[in-house]
Amino acid sequence: YKDNSVEIEDKGRGIPVDYNNREEKYNWELVFCELYAGGKYNNAEAENYEYSLGLNGLGLCATQYASLYMNVDIRRDGMRYTLHFEKGENVGALKKEPYTCLLYTSPSPRDSCASRMPSSACKKK
């Protein structure tokens, strides 16, 4: 970007944001606000990890502390969570909203619409 910011997208399951009883903090706080808080929390009934907060607990937290600002957009379990950090501080807390789908489209010229769709679909409203 022109302001030298970067965008990083991870195609994983989403960063865990729920409450961590063992640590007595929310997982998002551990991931973004606590150095060396990384770890993998094993689900005793399965081979896969229930939670993964990074291998050493430095990546996202160190990035957040070293950044002028950092915006976080997490999509997990049908919800969208957003966070905003400025100079190492969370501004505005965790925001949560339902998430379904986001589409981007570029409309075709009007005459091509008429050739592919019933005329009733192309009427101006």
Concise account of the structure shown:
By secondary structure, this protein is α+β, with helices and mostly antiparallel strands. Helix content is 18%, strand content 26%. Strands 5, 6, 7 and 8 form a four-stranded antiparallel sheet that branches. It has a two-stranded antiparallel ribbon with strand order 1-2. It has a two-stranded antiparallel ribbon with strand order 3-4.
Tags for this entry?
single chain; globular; 125 residues; alpha+beta; 8 strands; 3 helices; four-stranded antiparallel β-sheet; two-stranded antiparallel ribbon
Order of helices and strands: EEHEEHEEEEH
Distance between the termini: 39 Å
Q: From the helix content, strand content and strand pairing, which structural class follows?
A: alpha+beta
Helix share bin: 10-25%
Per DSSP, the total helix count is 3
Q: Could you tell me the strand content as a percent range?
A: 25-35%
Shape annotation:
globular
Radius of gyration: 21 Å
How would a crystallographer describe the biggest sheet? 4 strands, antiparallel
Q: Tell me the number of strands.
A: 8
Spans of 5+ residues with little confidence (pLDDT < 50)? none
The pLDDT mean sits at: 79
Describe the structure in your own words.
This protein is an alpha+beta fold. The protein is about 20% helix and about 25% strand. It is built from three helices and eight strands, in the order E-E-H-E-E-H-E-E-E-E-H. Strands 5, 6, 7 and 8 form a four-stranded antiparallel β-sheet that branches. It has a two-stranded antiparallel sheet with strand order 1-2. Strand 1 and strand 2 form a beta hairpin. Helix 1 crosses helix 2. The longest helix has 8 residues. The model has no long low-confidence stretch (mean pLDDT about 80).
